[in-house]
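Fold this sequence, please.
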Amino acid sequence: MYKRPMTSFVVLNTDFAEEVVRRGKQATQNSAEVAWEQLDLMLWKDILALRARVQKVEGRGFAFIADKSTTDAISCNEDILFEAKTLSSSPEDIHPIILSALSTSSKESIRMHPAAILALHLASLTEPGAVWVSLSYSSNRFPFLSDRQEKEDDKIKRLNVGEFWELEYVEAMKVIEDKRGEAGATVHAPDVFHYLYILRRTDVVIATS
């Protein structure tokens, strides 16, 4: 677990799969700068627990996040629906901003893009000015960051997280493939791109309790 004092920059790797974390710990067992922890970035209770431990050890949030297609995987899910009845849930089940939006809205539910929930959770773990670097297969991975205005005629209120992150830079990187000797390879195959996103945490304070 993330408990030891830090005397230098430390990389904390996370994964929801126990076996991945076990192998990661085994591979880096001799490193004092690399740590591993099992958690689900979509579960607020996991984020809340991690935040408490990091604050206790470091006295501040994270300054840098490296995301290698984690947002891609999370975005494969459908929009997540939060209903007003969740107000009776434990405070550790749902981010307080979502609970607050539900309690003050005339609507009975809020629908959120799964990556928007991730962005909200990561905003709660980071310091103002923190950088989030995301490598993605999508050319439009963070559309919800630019959609700051809520439409009045929305049937289901949508919670926006654009105030917590600014998209600073996007670069399309062509995948170079060596097709020599590949069976069935075609010279006229379409180009494939990966996309590098750089986001920066704004100085907007985020409630976490």
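The first helix runs from residue 18 to 27. The first strand starts at residue 11 and ends at 15.
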